[in-house]
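Mods, move this if it's the wrong board.
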Amino acid sequence: TRPPSQRTSLAARIIAVVLAERGVLPPHPRFWVGGTKQFVFQKLIRWIVMLTSLKKRFADIHSLTFTSRSQTGSQMNWNMNGHGTVTVRVHDEWIDFDETIILENGRVCHDKKRWRFSGSQLIFERYRNEQYEPIFEFSYQNGQFVPNQAYWCAPDEYRAELLCMPDVIVFTMTIHSERKNECLRYEYMAQ
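Not the wrong board. Structure tokens:
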């Protein structure tokens, strides 16, 4: 039989392989150390705790505030504030937000967003044309979400930022083109 430390290491490797195959844990070198590829068990535990905590933050959302601002050079005049409610539907691999936003001019807007969890990635999808379309992909690095790329919807370039705090998730999009220079900010509040 193996000593307890080697049994733990082997068990951690098996768990890591299974979680990586299911997309819960990324098969990424930062989770492995040294030439023997000995798995760092503490990092696995921290990763699972972080992912569980993050999903709970998203699942606890119930309301939002919305702000849009046209920046210098914009021809759009998208200057609006609003507030609303969020109905959350939790699934194993994603969380859906069904939003109702009441703008300050009284207009009511509805939107559907999906937050898909895939390894160390968080993928933002928006419901349009009768399906969810992936828009942004964020990587979890050094305790924060970093956008992987911009999104193009000709002629507009979309960029995003995501900040997750204990009771608030802030999702900010900027839109740039010849006519547009816009900033849209969603602040999602927990119950």
